[in-house]
Amino acid sequence: LAYLTADSRELLISSLNEADLAIVFQIHTAGGYFEDNNNYVYCGSYDVQDHQQDFAKQLVECIQLIDEVRQGGRINVHAGVDAWNQQQATGFLKFCLNQIEQHAKSKNITVTFETHRQRLFGSPFQTRDLLSSSSSAAAPPLSSLRLNADLSHWYCACERVFDETEERDKTWWPELVSTVVAPRCEYIHARLGWAQGPQLADPSAPECQSDVALQLKVWKTLVEAQFARQDDSSNNNKAATVYASPEYGPPPYLPVQPHTQEPVASLSEAVAYTKKLLEDLLASMVK
Per-residue pLDDT for 141 more than 80? Predict the structure, then answer.
């Protein structure tokens, strides 16, 4: 949650309403907090029940906050632990979807689960095993699960930006994108990654352009799927809406020089460059 005290909570809400902005809240199950020694804990427990209790608590808190934001919002989740087995993972996800059904669905609040390292969807292969239509785990109990596609984590974890023209990727990558990710994708963390990290320091560099082109092609597929779902819905009179963020981060996501810890490139320029890529992509698709 994006506040630390009751006063900052009220400041957050009033600032959003004054600016007429919506918000994306983030849940880190069993993590996302600072210890007394100021160490940041990304994931502080491997126990399924701890994650369930934390998800249920934070979901209600986020919904209560969204109710006070005039333009509303949505919720993104870093869920579970990558080390869980299939039974633990599916049990946890079923619990989460039940909580969403109880608390978020009637308010029309979208909840997405991010493809993020250390978490349940940190690998394309684990994601496929959990969500593929051919998997027994993906039978009705998980069919309502929605994804935030931050695929830069997958490229880093697997040490390559997947290329459907390459022998090692062509037999599985296009199918995974089209049948597992795209139908569930309601949000895109549009950060350009590479084989050795989740964030290109300067995505405008000439040496990055082959990786950039591959990732833009995937984003186009994800956007097309979002457009198609909206065309099929009852909201045909409304303009199509796509949720995407050029979500670049400061160090340690942004590489730094040894000893001085000076960033090797401009964070704001990377964000602006990727934002322009997204704008151009969307413009080319709505002509």
Answer: no
Is the pLDDT reported for residue 136 higher than 70?
A: no
Strand partners, 188: 149, 244
Partners of 245 in beta bridges: 189
180: closest CA among 119, 232, 231, 129? Answer: 129
What sign has the CA pseudo-torsion 117, 58, 92, 134? negative
Cβ neighbours around 132 below 10 Å, total? 15
* Residues 6 or more apart whose Cβ sits within 8 Å of residue 75: 24, 25, 26, 27, 59, 62, 63, 66, 104, 109, 110, 111, 112
- If 0-12 CB within 10 Å is exposed, 13-18 middle and 19+ buried, where does residue 44 land? middle
The mean per-residue pLDDT over the stretch 132-137 comes to: 65
Q: What's the per-residue H, E or C state across 69-88?
A: CCCCEEEEEECCCCCCCHHH
Please state the pTM of the whole predicted model.
0.94
CA 236 vs. chain centroid, Å, equals 26
